[in-house]
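User: I'm preparing a small set of examples for a lab meeting where we compare how different chains pack in three dimensions. I only have the primary sequence for this one, and I'd like the structure in token form so I can line it up with the others. Please keep the answer compact; I'll paste it straight into my notes.
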Amino acid sequence: MEIAISSNTRIYRVAISVFFFVAGLTFATWASRIPDIKNELGLTDAGLGLVLFALPVGQLLSLPLTTWMIAKFGSRRVVIAMAILYPLTLVFLAMTSSTPQLVCALLVFGFWANAMNISMNTQAVGLEKFYGRSIMASFHGLWSLAGFTGAIVGSFFVSRGISPAYHFSTVCLTTALLVIAAYKYTLPDSGNANKQSFFTKPDKQILILGLIAFCCMLCEGAMADWSGIYFQKVVDSPKAFTTVGFVAFTGSMAAGRFIGDWLVTRFGIKHILQLSGYIISTGLLTAVLFPSIPGSTIGFLLVGFGVSSVVPIVYGLAGKSTSMSAGAALASVSTISFIGFLIGPPVIGFIAQLSSLRISFTLIAILGFATVFLATKIKTSK
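Assistant: Understood. Below is the structure token output for the 382-residue chain.
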């Protein structure tokens, strides 16, 4: 099997990239219509925060089953199944007509999202071994490029007044065609034959990597869930421009990830992580201090570039753990990082309800800066 893979690394890389693209497109499609769904259901900021709480809860709930499925059946079967179920749930999100229905749909959406995240990153880590160099950032770059594409497409549908149901159904059909084209060329595996537990206690290195990812995912989640609301309420932009901030964020994140491997090679892992923390905080504070369309757009551009390299670096280091299997290490890091997604939406919503979104974003900027300190604690070979 290793000989076959070694001679076809390029086609495997293209196929795995397709699954990253499907995942990014699916998430961005949902994020681009959050303001519309909020208005349709008449949710307050605090109410939206509670509803959005369901998505990361679903992500956390998926961890035990996902890690077991990868150990039992292999990442190939899991990623193919999730690439079908994850986009399909968009249709159910569009069909919700009450808050309880939306919460249930988001629980399922989050469940499939994290299952796909872990399985496709396990595929990427496995392929990276055959390359003998870092290629993780390029995969995450495809996720971000898909996010940018989803944001652009979302802006088009919003500006034309097209319903989320039609929008989401179109994206679901598109992703299904992509999966059909790529599934045969995913990396073959057959589960975890050595029976190693996926619940091995993470070591200090994995915990630190998880905390770095936690800070980054909290900032990334703030952009995904609240950038449209920020432009709507704080910037007071016209409806057609409410997605501009999210487009700027996803676009710069995609660009940063495509040069991420080069940056790490040139400047080193620690330096890039520290620089990322500075840029994230600067971007958020720029949006807070200059709440206009130009000022907030520039701020969100900086945030996107700041977070771009963090998760690929963290996942790449976790996948090389010597104390845990790649799947187990990725699951441990995901568990810690998605707590950021878990607490982020309600905290931002409640603070915004008590004060303002600008105060919420200021606090997120402080947490983003924590990456600078945590980066000094990790052990790398560079």
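A couple of notes for your slides: The mean pLDDT is 85. Residues 2-377 form a domain with the Growth Hormone; Chain: A; fold (CATH 1.20.1250.20).

User: Perfect, thanks.
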